[in-house]
Structure formats: C-alpha cells, structure tokens
Amino acid sequence: MKTIINTANAPAPIGPYNQAVLSGNTLYTSGQIAIDASTGDLVMDSIEAETEQVMKNLKAVLEAAGMTFENVVKTSIFISDMHNFSKINAVYANYFSADTAPARETVEVANLPKFVNVEISAIAVN
C-alpha cells in the first residue's frame, strides 16, 4: 500500500510524479530543486541560496508526511558542477546532526531539470 504525499508548501511536480510516496513506514521523496513554492520562481541568486531553497522544499515534504530531517536515512545529491560541492555541503550540513547524518551520494550530472545547479532527494523512515 502506498500513500501519496503532496503539500502546497513545496513546489508542485513538473511532470507525472508526486512530491513523495509513503510505503509502510518509509518515505521516498522526489528530487527537490530550488523553486519557491509561494511564487513559482527559481531561487538562483547563489549556490548557497539555491541549496537553501532545495532544503526548505525537502523539509516541507518531510513535514507533510509527519517527519523531520532526523527521519532521513539516505539522500541523493545531484549537482551540475562538482566545484560547488563544498558550498552545497555547507548548507546541507545545517540540516543534519553529524552524529546522525544519513547515508548519501553526491553525483555530478550534465544537466538537471530547469537547468538548476542542485537537486536533492531523500528516503526517510518513521
């Protein structure tokens, strides 16, 4: 059994998918990019601002499922330029305790939706 998770506090999907799917006690989020849900605009002022918006969107999806970043067991980070890794990582680190941080991978890709610089998805367990 799966439950579809959607919230107005995160960007609406731009394709045939949902913001997240809850299966049992495990939440699978779709990748979040830096779209401000209240305006529909991309936040691209800096890689830090972009990453901050991505994390805010991910937080909104987690909250819609009754979870927090403490529930996250795995993240996937896709970036368009590995030279931005340290800046992205610095913002990302603000959302997790070093002692309980999730497993993750970070992958450089040729392009991302809407030609953003970073996309992050998560798996969380309640």
Description:
By secondary structure, this protein is of the alpha+beta class. It has a single domain (2-125), classed as 60s Ribosomal Protein L30, Chain: A (2-Layer Sandwich), CATH 3.30.1330. It is built from two helices and six strands. A six-stranded mixed sheet has the order 1-2-3-6-4-5, with helices on one face. A hairpin with a 2-residue loop joins strand 2 (20-23) and strand 3. It is globular and about 40 Å long. It starts with a strand and ends with a strand. The model has no long low-confidence stretch (mean pLDDT 97). This is RidA family protein.
CATH topology: the name is 60s Ribosomal Protein L30, Chain: A
If you average the pLDDT, what whole number results?
A: 97
Structural class: alpha+beta
Termini, distance in Å? 16 Å
Please report the number of helical segments. Answer: 2
Number of strands: 6
User: Number of domains in the coordinates?
Assistant: 1
Extract low-pLDDT stretches: none
Gross morphology is globular
Element pattern in H and E: EEEHEHEE
Instruction: Specify the helix fraction band.
Output: 10-25%
CATH-wise, what's the superfamily?
Answer: RutC-like
The CATH class label is Alpha Beta
Assigned CATH architecture: 2-Layer Sandwich
The strands making up the biggest β-sheet line up spatially as 1-2-3-6-4-5
* Main sheet summary: 6 strands, mixed
Hey, roughly how much beta strand do the residues contain?
Answer: 25-35%
Gyration radius, in Å: 14 Å
GO molecular function: deaminase activity
Protein name: RidA family protein
GO cellular component, one term: cytosol
Family: Belongs to the RutC family.
